[in-house]
Amino acid sequence: MTKPIHDLVRPHLVDIKTYDPIDPPDVLAKRAGVPEEKIVKLNGNENPYGGSPKVAEALANAPIHVYPDPLQRNVRAALAAHTGFDQSNIIAGAGSDELIDLLLRLFISPGDTVLDCDPTFGMYGFCARVAGADIKLVPRDDAFEIDMPAVKEAIDEHTKIMFVSSPNNPTGNLISEADVRELLETGPVVVVDEAYHEFARETMAGLVAEYENLVVLRTLSKWAGLAGLRIGYGFMGARLVDHVIDIKPPYNVSVAAEAALLASLADSDVLLAQVDRLIDDQKRLFAELEKLPGLKPWPSRANFILCQVEDGRAGKVYEGLARRGIFVRKFGHERLKDCFRVSIGTPEQNDAFLTALAELV
Questions:
Q1: What's the mean pLDDT in 201-210?
Q2: Mean pLDDT value of segment 333-349
Q3: Is 361 within 8 Å of 293 (Cβ atoms)?
Q4: Based on the domain organization, do 259 and 280 belong to the same domain?
Q5: Residues 160 and 294 in one domain
Q6: CA distance 249 to 234
Q7: 172, 211: one domain
Q8: What is the share, in percent, of the chain residues with pLDDT greater than 70?
Q9: Distance from first CA to last CA of the chain, Å, rounded?
Q10: For the domain that residue 296 is a member of, what is the CATH number?
């Protein structure tokens, strides 16, 4: 008699707590009962202006019948030219999510611990759970800053890796270089996720030459509008790059993603001008949110704003917006139960959001 399939699954994966993803536009439209082109999707931190026009041409001419380069030579050379770092210190992935997963595969053995500064991006904890790591959650302080004494106290001989999102998702605040150095001196691998670097324009990547235990992650999902093609990259020591290459799927960056990355980097001036526009729009949106009674927007250095709603009405506000076809991000996290996160959209989308929100708070 054969065993039930769940008896063959690795025990820690049978009832794993999954990542809470966002639904695609067509599903959101059906939920709201409005045409897909009418919804205002502000829940994914996506670029509302899309990618470079050059990407479509590049994709049309991409040799999709050929396997991509397993060593990512053109991708890494282009990223080196774009960032000013040596390509020996750069590795690309199918989104920075894949690099998070690969780093955990590389470093985590049974009994090892991952340290996470909570609340933060849910993929760190999810990938750690998949890897079978023990997870230590160190709560951020009342201002959502990292509690450095508590973090250092939580580190022990089992701590292999810690994640720091800067700007932090979903709170939008940065970590200082002094704090990053202090974390690096404790010994474990420190992964600084700079997914929103182009909006914050502060980086810890320059420390990679000093610290072999530092990894800095970036993505083209946000500033370059390539979320649907899954392309991210990381800076790290050359020896660590080689280790990641050894364990990654050989063809992890698709031909389509490579073509889109190369076209985007060639058009970076146009894309970064869009980023400038989004930064200006973020400042305007924040100023308008500050005027609404019963709402506290948290200062942010990214393309989103965390909004705290008084009197436990965040759920009602979220549902009220959704009924109007406006979608923001809600959270199951206890610390964020009174909050929602709104991405910066076009001026028209931002205005629609503000109009609806004013009726609900």
A1: 98
A2: 96
A3: yes
A4: no
A5: no
A6: 16
A7: yes
A8: 100
A9: 59
A10: 3.90.1150.10
Q: Is the pLDDT of residue 224 over 90?
A: yes
pLDDT one-digit tens code per residue, 254-264: 999 999 999 99
Q: Which of 236, 267, 298 is the last residue of a domain?
A: 267
The answer to whether residues 283 and 259 belong to one domain is: no
pTM over 0.70: yes
Structural domain count, the chain: 2
Distance CA 30, CA 123 (A): 27
Average pLDDT score over residue span 41-66: 97
- Please give the residue range of the domain that contains residue 298: 5-50+269-360
The reply to whether 80 and 220 lie within a common domain is yes
Residues 55, 260 contacting (CB under 8 angstroms): yes
Are 278 and 257 found together in one domain? no
Q: What is the pLDDT of residue 273?
A: 97
- Mean pLDDT of all residues in 277-301: 97
Of 63, 61, 21, 16, whose CA–CA distance to 43 is shortest? Answer: 21
Could you give the CA distance from residue 195 to residue 174 in angstroms, rounded to a whole number? Answer: 12
